């Protein structure tokens, strides 16, 4: 029972677009208020942003953050969030049954992005609104000066345009839970018309159309085909969303779910290529996997919350060790299709199904899932090499032939480094792993980072923030020119760095 992987620097999947390590801040729960922004917190900066949270975000090296939703955006009037704060209205958010005070809006979020060394992926409301508001928002955000909306921005203290490059055309418009949900044809039409006027306003932008809300939607994958039939010419990316849970307490099956993510990605690429062929098009549509994560722990607690309060503790999943393993597998799934998946957002970033948790007025700490996300974002830049993997396999409730080993290698040509990411899905046994780096004969192991735990359900909390954290005690070592051997502990996430 041994696993192996062969990689060669001449066999490449594609360049990693750093935006696959994106994340998401929605006006939902304590993501904004109590998360990134808390003016009364002892560590708040002059604008009210929490500096402890900023430090943790910077540690992830997040290149892009989707904003302001999510379901929230489908009922959002962006104008409520700009201008003098004392004049901003309190509005009901029907998506999450809360009150939105509008203390943070577009301009504050752009300031936060600068402080966090990241850029924004902005979503427009195609639920209760449409192309007119979308073009106005874009004019406000990106037009240099000399028009109503750009001059209004300047009068709000932001003379320089924000130059936001990436825009989402609505959110999950296939879902009946969405304000203003639509059929695929209705959405495809409005997405195309919004895309046209947005491009005419600023031809430098890139646009993401909504794909299915999950692989379980009855309209998947016909939705993708119909939307692209209408909007192919004017959009650049199609979105994918997927969340997983371990509701039955069946960990082997839970960890196998990224195999479903692989086939989701494969199918959406196929649909994009089918429409390209049908249209005799030159342009490839790329994928933006702009919501992905584990989400289920908080479902029951959320059903008991009182409606119509400001920033209640919604979607506050507390992640355990096995969740970090699935997150690692999902990151590997994204990397394996680096040729077509050009953006992805872990949903979300702070407090709401997030790698970072805070207490109001108190501590901020790293959840278990912070670590695989950080490792991939920091070490997974460069070129993905084709992974020829052999692994023993298992069958679970919903999946057959699930490899115990999930692995991929990224070659950073500039640094002359190769990083191998690997998950051992086996819950009881370690896995011997041989890596054949035949075109890197001179290379030596720099470090072998391991995330493991004696308890799959172990979590990090404010009181015990370091219960689950990685160590550099893995045993990967070079055995021969270009050959590395390692033992992957049972149920572990591994980062093997070679130079
Ligand atoms: O990320 C939480 C929610 O999940 C988002 O608002 C929505 O787009 C999805 O259903």
UniProtKB/TrEMBL annotation:
<keyword id="KW-0326">Glycosidase</keyword>
<dbReference type="Pfam" id="PF22848">
    <property type="entry name" value="ASD1_dom"/>
</dbReference>
<dbReference type="GO" id="GO:0000272">
    <property type="term" value="P:polysaccharide catabolic process"/>
</dbReference>
<dbReference type="Pfam" id="PF06964">
    <property type="entry name" value="Alpha-L-AF_C"/>
</dbReference>
<dbReference type="GO" id="GO:0046373">
    <property type="term" value="P:L-arabinose metabolic process"/>
</dbReference>
<dbReference type="InterPro" id="IPR055235">
    <property type="entry name" value="ASD1_cat"/>
</dbReference>
<comment type="pathway">
    <text>Glycan metabolism.</text>
</comment>
<keyword id="KW-0119">Carbohydrate metabolism</keyword>
<comment type="similarity">
    <text>Belongs to the glycosyl hydrolase 51 family.</text>
</comment>
<comment type="subunit">
    <text>Homohexamer; trimer of dimers.</text>
</comment>
<keyword id="KW-0378">Hydrolase</keyword>
<dbReference type="InterPro" id="IPR010720">
    <property type="entry name" value="Alpha-L-AF_C"/>
</dbReference>
<dbReference type="InterPro" id="IPR013780">
    <property type="entry name" value="Glyco_hydro_b"/>
</dbReference>
<protein>
    <recommendedName>
        <fullName>non-reducing end alpha-L-arabinofuranosidase</fullName>
        <ecNumber>3.2.1.55</ecNumber>
    </recommendedName>
</protein>
<feature type="domain" description="Alpha-L-arabinofuranosidase C-terminal">
    <location>
        <begin position="290"/>
        <end position="492"/>
    </location>
</feature>
<dbReference type="InterPro" id="IPR017853">
    <property type="entry name" value="GH"/>
</dbReference>
<dbReference type="GO" id="GO:0046556">
    <property type="term" value="F:alpha-L-arabinofuranosidase activity"/>
</dbReference>
């Amino acid at each position: 029972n041994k696993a192996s992987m062969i990689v060669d620097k001449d066999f490449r999947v594609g360049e990693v677009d750093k935006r696959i390590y994106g994340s998401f801040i929605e006006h939902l729960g304590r993501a904004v208020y109590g998360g990134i922004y808390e003016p009364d917190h002892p560590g708040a900066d002059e604008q009210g942003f929490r500096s402890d949270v900023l430090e943790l975000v910077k540690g992830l090296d997040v290149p892009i953050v989707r904003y302001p939703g999510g379901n929230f955006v489908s009922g959002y009037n962006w104008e409520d969030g700009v201008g003098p704060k004392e004049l901003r209205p309190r509005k009901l958010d029907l998506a999450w049954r809360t009150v939105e005070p509008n203390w943070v809006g577009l301009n504050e979020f752009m300031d936060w992005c600068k402080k966090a060394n990241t850029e924004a992926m902005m979503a427009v409301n195609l639920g209760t609104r449409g192309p007119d508001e979308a073009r106005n928002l874009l004019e406000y955000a990106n037009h240099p000066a000399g028009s109503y909306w750009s001059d209004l921005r300047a009068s709000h203290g932001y003379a320089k345009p924000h130059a936001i490059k990436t825009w989402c055309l609505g959110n999950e418009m296939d879902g009946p839970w969405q304000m203003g949900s639509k059929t695929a044809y209705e959405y495809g039409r409005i997405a195309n018309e919004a895309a046209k006027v947005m491009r005419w306003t600023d031809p430098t932008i890139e646009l993401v159309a909504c794909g299915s809300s999950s692989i379980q939607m009855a309209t998947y994958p016909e939705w993708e085909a119909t939307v692209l039939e209408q909007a192919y010419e004017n959009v650049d990316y199609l979105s994918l969303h997927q969340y997983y849970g371990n509701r039955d307490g069946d960990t082997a099956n839970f960890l196998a779910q990224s195999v479903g993510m692989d086939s989701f990605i494969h199918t959406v690429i196929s649909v994009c290529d089918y429409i390209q062929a049908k249209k005799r098009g030159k342009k490839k549509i790329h994928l933006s996997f702009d919501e992905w994560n584990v989400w289920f722990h908080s479902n029951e607690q959320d059903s008991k919350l009182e409606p119509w309060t400001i920033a209640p503790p919604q979607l506050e999943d507390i992640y355990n060790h096995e969740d970090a393993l699935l997150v690692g597998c999902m990151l590997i799934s994204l990397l394996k299709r680096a040729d077509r998946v050009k953006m992805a957002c872990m949903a979300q970033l702070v407090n709401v199904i997030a790698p970072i948790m805070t207490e109001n007025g108190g501590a901020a700490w790293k959840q278990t899932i912070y670590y695989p996300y950080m490792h991939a974002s920091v070490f997974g830049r460069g070129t993905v090499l084709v992974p020829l993997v052999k692994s023993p396999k298992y069958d679970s409730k919903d999946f057959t032939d699930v490899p115990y080993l999930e692995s991929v290698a990224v070659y950073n040509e500039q640094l002359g480094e190769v990083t191998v990411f690997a998950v051992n899905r086996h819950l009881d046994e370690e896995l011997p792993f041989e890596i054949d780096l035949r075109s890197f004969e001179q290379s030596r192991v720099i470090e072998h980072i391991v995330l493991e735990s004696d308890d799959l359900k172990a979590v990090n909390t404010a009181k015990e923030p370091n219960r689950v954290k990685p160590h550099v005690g893995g045993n990967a070592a070079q055995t021969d020119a270009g050959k590395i051997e390692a033992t992957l502990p049972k149920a572990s996430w591994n980062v093997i760095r070679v130079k």
